[in-house]
Specification:
The protein is built from two helices and eight strands, in the order αββββββββα. The chain is α/β, with parallel strands linked by helices.
Length: 174
């Protein structure tokens, strides 16, 4: 009985260390020119493109609120993360989740207790991810013992932009 009580107290103590990290994305269109020649409509969050990375520590709970100001639904996906008890967040619209309708919002609850590393959050509706609705998700390891093994951490994300919006390209190719 004592071992069971200690285990419960220990597990409760670990849970208390977890932080709820709240991030809000006000998702909307932005007019951009990536090549200096063409201007078209891309998708950003909070008026920014690229969207700044999200940093949490292993064990934290990420609450990502998506407010959809687009003229189409939005779904978000934390790519590479285990979806324990949250498989309804794990995929494309109308397969595992309904899209967030225009003018609506939804809060994704993303637990990070089992993983650390660099992942990404991206849209899973049509070409929204390619048009800018994506960012890196960095889950810092609680065990910082390797911190002295390297000089610096560099997060580098790459993107590929064409000469026309991806939704236009997709419709033309169908």
């Amino acid at each position: 009985m004592l071992a069971c009580t200690l285990l419960i107290l220990f597990a409760g103590g670990l849970q208390a260390l977890a932080v709820r990290v709240q991030v809000t994305w006000d998702i909307g269109y932005l007019n951009i020119s990536r090549d200096g020649l063409s201007t078209w409509r891309a998708i950003g969050a909070n008026g920014q493109l690229p969207i700044p990375p999200i940093y949490v520590t292993q064990g934290d709970v990420l609450e990502l609120t998506a407010i959809n100001h687009l003229d189409m639904p939005v779904t978000l996906h934390a790519h590479g993360l285990f979806q324990r008890n949250s498989t309804y967040y794990d995929g494309p619209a109308l397969i595992t989740e309904c899209g967030i309708p225009p003018g609506s919002q939804f809060t994704y609850i993303i637990e990070t207790r089992d993983q650390s590393g660099t992942y990404w959050v991206h849209s899973h509706y049509r070409m929204e991810g390619i048009d800018g609705l994506r960012t890196a998700l960095v889950i810092l390891d609680q065990d910082m013992s390797l911190l002295d093994e390297y000089d610096e951490d560099v997060l580098l994300t790459l993107e590929d932009w064409g000469q026309e919006p991806n939704n236009d390209l997709m419709e033309r190719l169908q």
